[in-house]
Design goal:
single chain; about 140 residues; alpha/beta; 7 helices
């Protein structure tokens, strides 16, 4: 039996940041299927499609920008954590905010990792290590 390539959902509206996430994945030689949605409403639609059995494949990891159009990343995270099917998916918040952990805590939602977007390319590539770690977390391995 061949191992399935893990799926990652990236909710990010900035094309430059999408490019950098792809570069971080490439830098760490991660074999993944990356699915990009450009706003919070689209991310919520993915969660709801999984809940209603309209998607057979669901992400092993979600990368979530906080400043999304239509619905914020915190709204997406809150909806995700309410989901029976998706609530345990590991989430990394990727934000330009200097205190994404505090923002999530104040909103009463849980993320597994937090990554503040640096202005330095090499530091941004460190996101690949976070993705790798989340893909190997016990919750993701059970998905």
């Amino acid at each position: 039996m061949q191992d399935r390539i893990p799926d990652i959902l990236l909710a990010e509206d900035n094309p430059a940041d999408v490019f950098l996430v792809k570069e971080a994945i490439r830098t760490y030689a991660l074999s993944v299927n990356l699915h990009v949605v450009r706003d919070g409403e689209a991310a919520i639609r993915v969660i709801e499609a999984i809940e209603h059995g309209e998607r057979e494949v669901y992400p092993g990891v979600i990368l979530l920008d906080l400043n999304l159009p239509r619905r914020t990343g915190l709204e997406v995270l809150a909806r995700l954590r309410e989901s029976i099917q998706c609530g345990g998916i590991p989430v990394a918040i990727i934000s330009s905010s200097r205190q994404p952990a505090e923002l999530a805590s104040e909103a009463g939602v849980h993320a597994d990792r937090f990554f503040t977007k640096p202005s330095d390319y090499d530091r941004f590539m460190e996101l690949g290590g976070i993705i790798r770690d989340l893909l190997h977390s016990p919750v993701c391995a059970m998905a």
